[in-house]
Amino acid sequence: MIITCPWCGPRDLREFTYRGDGTITRPDIDSENVDLAASFVFDRENPAGDHLEIWHHGGGCRSHVLVKRNTLTHKIITCGPLGPFSKNGAKA
Amino acid sequence: MSGYRLDRSDNGGRIDRSKHLSFTFDGRSYSGFQGDTLASALLANGVMVLGRSFKYHRPRGLYSAGPEEPNALVTLRSGNRSEPNIRATEIELFDGLEAKSQNCWPSPKFDLMSINQLGGNALAAGFYYKTFMGPKIAFNRTTEVWWQFEKLIRRAAGLGVAPVEADPDHYERMHAWCDLLIVGSGPAGLIAAEMAAKSGANVILCEQHPLLGGSLNGTGDTINSLDAEDWAKSCIARLQAFDNVRILTRTTVQGYFDDNILQAIERVADHKPVPDPHEPRQRSWIISAKSVVVATGAIERPMVFSGNDRPGIMLADSARRLTCEFDVVPGKNITVFTNNDTAYLAARDIAKCGGNISAIFDVRPEISGEARAVAALIGAEIHPGTAISRTGGWQRLSAVQYGNYDFDKKRVAPQSHRYETDCLLVSGGWSPAIHLTSQFGGQPEWSDELQAFLPGKPTRNWRGAGATVGAFGLENTFISAAKAAEAALEDLGLETKPALIPEIDGNNFNLAPAAVFEIRREIKRGKSFVDLQHDVTAEDVRLAHREGFVSVEHLKRYTTLGMATDQGKTSNVTGLAIMADARGEKIPDVGTTRFRPPYTPVAIGAIAGECFGHLKPYRLTPMNDWHCDRGANMVANGLWMRPECYNLSGETVEQATIREARTVRSGVGLVDVSTLGKIDIQGPDAAEFLNRVYSNGFAKLPIGKARYGLMLREDGFLFDDGTTWRFSEHHYMMTTTTANAGPVMAHMEYYLDVIWPELKVSLVSITDEWAGIALAGPKSRAVLETCVTGVEMSNEAFPSMGVREGTIDNIPVKIARLSFSGEMAFEVYCGAHYGQALWDGLMEAGKPFDIVPYGLEALTTLRIEKGHVAGPELNGRTTADDLGLGQMVSRKKPFIGSILVQRDALMENGREQLVAVKSLDGQKIRGGGHVVVSSDSANPGESLGHITSACYSPELECYIALGLLKNGRSRIGEKLYITSPLRGSHSPVEIISPHMVDPKGERMHG
Fold first, then answer.
1. Listed residue (B281, B274, B241, B248) closest to B263, CA to CA
2. What is the mean pLDDT of residues B7-20?
3. N- to C-terminal Cα distance for chain A?
4. How do residues A27-84 score in pLDDT, each as one tens digit?
5. Phi then psi dihedrals of residue B437, to 5 deg
6. Whole-prediction pTM value?
7. A92 falls in which pLDDT band (50, 70, 90)?
8. Does A58 contact chain B (CB < 8 Å)?
C-alpha cells in the first residue's frame, strides 16, 4: 500500500502507523461528560467502504495525516494534512 | 514400457545434445543433457515411479511438465542445501545434481507404507477430526493414548523433510517500479511487451521459466511465415534492444498485493550446483507497477476416473511439451483420453516428432472434422463416446478399460473393453491461471463455453491477456493481448499505435470441452483421485457433501482438497464440479475459493532476504564499549544493549548483583541510564500541555525543579511514568521509561497534531543526543562535590527534585536530584559524545569513595526493594490506584484519562493491587508465579494474583518480589503461597508492604 503524505509525497505503508478513526472528535478538555468520553474511546463504526482514518508518518516527517481509505479494497482515496500546519489546524 | 529419448540430432528444442550431464536419483546415476529438467531427464531414462503419494503411499509418476506438477516432488540436493518438495518439472538439470524421492521407504518402487492402501477407507476425508477430536473419556487419559498413535500416523503421511542445518546460501530483496508489469512471456506477453516498449513505457517482463516464449516453444504453428519459435526469438531480440524493457527470466510472480505491488521470486542460481561467490541463490522482487498485464496462460485439467493416478498417466499437453521441447516421449504405445480438441493437437505434435499414438478415447459422441483429420493423419483410432473406466498395471500403467459413456446417467457403461497401453494422456479442458487476479479478491466468473473460471472484472489496474482471460488459439491470444496492452497504455496516458496482429497459419480448433469432469462407474471400486498431491478422491468430496460440508470453504478444509503445495492447480475446478453435481447445482452457484499468494511454493530464505539472524538494529549507549571492556554481561532491553552486571572474576550474576546493590546502599555506585527516553519540550503552551498529559499537577512546576509524573491512557489505565524537568519558562525535558520512549513520543505528537493543534508546543526526541548517568548511594553527593563546577551541592542548595546546570571536567551537564533506588541519588546528563568522558570523570572522582558501576540487575533489585514500579507492573491493565499511586491522579484538573479513570470498573473492590511478598522458605520466588491460598501444590485452587518482578534482596537478606494481588493492600501480613505448576514450585510467602526499604524516604532527602 502506498500513502501519499501531503508533506513527503508517495511513501510505503511501512513508514506509517494507523492511529485510529478520523471521524470522531475528542470531547473538550474541560468536558466532564462520561458518556461522551466513553463514546470517544470505545464507539467505532467499522464501515465497509470509505473511511476516514488518522495515520502517523512515524518513519518520515512524523506528522499525522487524514486518510480516506476504502476498507473493502484498501484503496487510498485522499490523504490530507492534520495538525498546526494544516489549513484548518490552528484554531488560534 | 516407459519413456524414452527420441533419436533426433536435428532437433531445435531446448536440449543441447553435445553437453552430457550426470545426476543421481535415489543414489543411482543417470545422464541427461544441458537444457533438460530433472523430470524430462528421469523420463528419458525410463524412471517412471518418482515417489509415493501423501496418504495411501501409491506409486506416482510424472504428471505434467510445469509448475502445476502434483506428483513428482523430490528432495533436491543434500546436507544443509537439501530442499524438500521441489517439483521435478521445475528443476533445471546441472551436472552432479542429487535428488531423492519422498514419502517412501525403502524406495519408491518398494514402499513398506503402501500397506496404507489396504486400509484406505479408514483414511478418508476428516480422518484426523474423527480420530483425534473425540470426547475425552477420563481426564487426560484416553486422548493421550490417541496422541501417541497420532505421532506414528502423521509420520506415515506427509511429504519431504525440511533440513535442520542452517541454509548456507544468501538471498536478497530488490525493489523496482514500472509503468507496466507483464506476467508471462508467451504469445500474449510478448506482443503486449512489444507494444508497451514502443510506447516508451517502463516495462518489466517476468517469465517463470528459463526460456522466454511460453507456449510458442515447440508448437508446429507458423507466425508471419516463421516457425512460432523463431518468431518468438525475433520478438525477444527486438525487446532486448529497448532500454525501457527489463526482462526477468526464472522469475515467478507469486503475489499480487494492494496498490499494484507484486512480489516475484527470481531463481538466480538454482540451476547451478551452488551459487557463484557473492551471488544470491534467489532474489525477491517487490515490484510497484502502475499497471499489470496478466498473461499467465492456462493449466490443463485432468479427467477423474478409477485408477487415474497410475504412473504412465499424464496431462496431454505436458506430454507434448516433453516430446517437442525435450525430445522425450512418455511411452511406446500412447493412448489419449479427452473431452476436448486440444488433446488432438498434442497427439499431432507428439506423432510429428516420432511418438506413437495408437488410440484416442473421446467422451464426446460427435467429433469435429479437424480432430478426425488429425487422428487420420497420425494413424490413431478414435473411440467416440467412450470413457476410461479403470486402469491396470503393477507400479505403472499397462492397460486401460474403456466403455461407452452415457451423458444422461453420467456413468460409463459396465461393459468394458481392454486396451493395452503404457501411457495414457488425459485432457479435461483448460483452467485459465487466474491465481494472481484472484489473490486480492477479483471475483472469478464461470464460462459455460470453456467450462472454466475466468478472472472476472478487474478490481485493480490490471488487464488479462490471452488464455488467462479465455482467449485460446494463437490468433485470439494475439488479439486479446493487443487489446489489453492498448487499454493499459491508454490508462497510463501513453500513445499507442494499433498492434499489427501477426499472421497465423495453424489450425483453428474449437477448444470448448464437453462438461465431463469425472467418469463414474455403476459400482464403486478403486480410487478416483481429484487432488493427486493430497490424495483426495471423488468419493471424499461426496463424503464431505454427505456429512454436511457443502460450502466450498468447508469442502476445502474438510478434505484438504487444493491445500497441498500445488494449491490445487489441477484439481480445484474438478473438485467443485463434483461437489456441484452432489448438490445438484451449477458450478458457479457452488462458488470458488480464493487463491492465496504465493503462486508456487517459495523458500523462506527468499522472503527473509538479508534479514536473518539478528533482525533488528542494536541500540548502543555512548558508554557501551566501556561496559564490554569491563566484561559486563550485555543483555537486550528492547533494542538497547545494557550491562546486566559487572562480574568480578568467579562471581555469578546473582553474586555480582548483590555486591553492586549493597555498594549502592552503603557507598556509591553509578549506572548508565542513557536508554531512558528523553523528549525536549518547548513552547509557550508547554506547561498547559504537560498538565493535560500527566495525571498529576504540572502547571506549577517551578523552574529548576523536576517532578515525577504519571501518564494515563484515555481509557484510564496507566500508560507510562517518568520525570519532567523545567529548565526555563518555556523549556522542559521529559524522561520516559526505556520501553515506552517511542510510544510516549507518538502519543504526545498525536495530541498536538490531532486533538489540540492550537497548543503552541514543539517536541523533539533527544534520547540519542543525551547520555545519562545515575549516581546513587549515601556517598553520591560527596563524589559530585569533588568534581562538579558551578553547582552548590549542599542539601539546602540542591534539594531533592532539584535541577541544576554545571560542568564536570569542563563537560556541560544537567543534574537532577532524583532517586530510583531510594538512596540519595543524582541523574547527570550530557551530550552523547561526552558520555564516555563524563563516565570516566565520575569513576575517577568516585575512586576515593570506592565507587562501583552497577548493571540492570542491581538497578532492578534496588527498585523492587523500594517498591518502585516499572514495565512488569505498568502492563496496560493496571491503574494508578492499583499500584498505590492513587494520590498522583488529580481530581482538580482535567487530563488525558481523567474521566474514564473514575469509571466503576476501575474503582471497584477486588482489583489486583501492588504488594510485595517475602519468601518464608528461602526459595527463589518465580516471576509469573501465581498467588494462592492452598498449601497443596497438586490442588493450588484459584489464583489471587501473580508475581511481576522478583529478586534476592541484599537489604532484607531474603528473596522478595512485587506482585499484583486481589485486594492486596488489605492482605498485608497474610501468609499465602506462590505456585508455578509448570516449573514445579510451590512456596510459602508473606504478603508485605511494597515499601521495603526506608519507607519514610529519609535516605533520599538527607
1. B248
2. 80
3. 35
4. 999 999 999 999 999 999 999 999 999 999 999 999 999 999 999 888 899 999 998 8
5. -70, -25
6. 0.81
7. very low
8. yes
| Best residue in B899, B901, B904 for a mutation probing chain A (most A CBs within 10 Å) | B899
Is any Cβ of chain B less than 8 angstroms from the Cβ of A44? Answer: no
Mark yes or no for CB contact B753/A92 under 8 Å.
no
Predicted confidence at residue B858, as pLDDT, reads 97
Where do we find the cell 498538565?
B691
Interchain contact, A41 vs B753, CB within 8 Å: no
List the one residue out of B266, B88, B64 whose CA is nearest residue B160.
B88
CB contact under 8 A, B758 and A84: yes
Q: Which of B692, B714, B757 sits opposite A90 (nearest CB)?
A: B757
How do residues B807-848 score in pLDDT, each as one tens digit?
Answer: 999 999 999 999 999 999 999 999 999 999 999 999 999 999
Query: Which residues lie across from B987 on neighbouring strands?
Result: B978
B237 vs B509: CA distance, rounded Å: 30
Q: pLDDT, tens digit, for every residue of B624-646?
A: 999 999 999 999 998 999 999 99
Residue B714 three-state SS = coil
Tell me the pLDDT tens digit for each residue of B946-989.
Answer: 999 999 999 999 999 999 999 999 999 999 999 998 888 999 99
Whether B135 has a pLDDT exceeding 90, the answer reads no
Kindly state whether B899 is in contact with chain A, defined as any CB-CB distance less than 8 angstroms. Answer: yes
Query: pLDDT digits over B75-107, tens only?
Result: 999 999 999 999 999 999 999 999 999 877 667
In the chain, the amino acid numbered B882 is D
- Partners of B714 on chain A (C-beta within 8 Å) are 26, 37, 40-41
Sign of CA dihedral A22, A27, A28, A30: negative
Cell numbers for B109: 518402487
Structural domains in chain A, CATH included, are 2-27+40-81 (3.30.2270.10)
Cβ separation of A37 and B750 shorter than 8 Å?
A: no
A41 with B715: Cβ contact below 8 A: yes
Residues with Cβ within 8 Å of residue B384, at least 6 apart in sequence: B362, B364, B365, B366, B367
What residues 364-423 of chain B have any CB closer than 8 A to a CB of chain A?
Answer: none
| Distance, CA of B769 to CA of B838 (rounded, Å) | 14
For testing contact with chain B, the best of A35, A70, A74, A79 (most B CBs within 10 A): A74
Domains of chain B in start order, with CATH, are 171-298+432-505 (3.50.50.60), 628-675+769-868 (3.30.1360.120), 676-766 (3.30.70.1400), 908-1006 (2.40.30.110)
**Interface contacts (A, B; CB < 8 Å):** 75
The helix/strand/coil state of B679 is strand
Chain A hits for B760, Cβ within 8 Å: 84, 92
CA of B692: which chain A residue's CA is closest? A29
| Helices B228-240 and B187-199, packing angle to 10 deg | 30
Which residues are registered as beta bridge partners of B447? Answer: B452
Is residue B960 within a helix (H) or strand (E), and if so which, with residue range?
A: strand B958-966
Helices B835-846 + B780-787 axis angle, to 10 = 110
- The identity of residue A23, as a single letter, is T
Peptide bond before B106: cis, by omega within 30 degrees of 0? yes
Residue type at B947 in one-letter notation: I
Between the two ends of chain B, the Cα-to-Cα distance in Å is: 99
Which residues, including other chains, have CB under 8 Å from residue B345's CB and lie 6 or more apart?
B320, B374, B507, B509
* Amino acid at the residue B227: D
Q: At which residue does the C-alpha cell 570516566 appear?
A: B840
- SS3 at position B360: strand
Q: Which amino acid is at A1?
A: M
For B398, B642, B915, B975, B985, the CA distances from B927, given in Å and listed in that order, are 69, 21, 14, 18, 12
Cβ-Cβ contacts under 8 Å for B214 (sequence gap 6 or more): B184, B185, B186, B187, B189, B207, B297
